Every structure is written in C-alpha cells, then in structure tokens.
Amino acid sequence: MWCVPETASAEFVCAMEDTLAVCHRQQEYMRPLVCLDEGGKQLTKETRLPLPPRPGTGAQYGYE
Q1: Does residue 1 register a pLDDT over 60?
Q2: Is 0.85 surpassed by the pTM of this model?
Q3: CB crowding 4-13: b at 16 or more within 10 Å, else e
Q4: Chain-wide mean pLDDT for the chain?
C-alpha cells in the first residue's frame, strides 16, 4: 500500500515530482493519458452499521 512517509526522503520527493509532472502534460490526441486505480477491487462490505431509522425515514448510511 502506498502512503506518505512520516519523514520526507529524496526518493519520495523524486517520485512525487514524477507524479505531478504527469498532471501537467499537454493533452495529445495521439497519446491519450489513461489513469488507472491501484486495484480492481469492488468494496462491498459494510464497515459501519447504519444509523437507526427515525419515524418516516429508512435506515441511513454514511458515505465513507
């Protein structure tokens, strides 16, 4: 899993500069920019219980 390290290192800064450089590229018709997610997993498990229903409404789920 990728995460920001607690202390910055030259290796991390170099990788971040490469990532930011991609965002600033000119759009090219013959070389489209394709973005991919890190994984192909659909998260379907509920991690929190729904809020209890109030009169006149159903159960509600948070968006996290």
Answers
A1: no
A2: no
A3: eeeeeeeeee
A4: 76
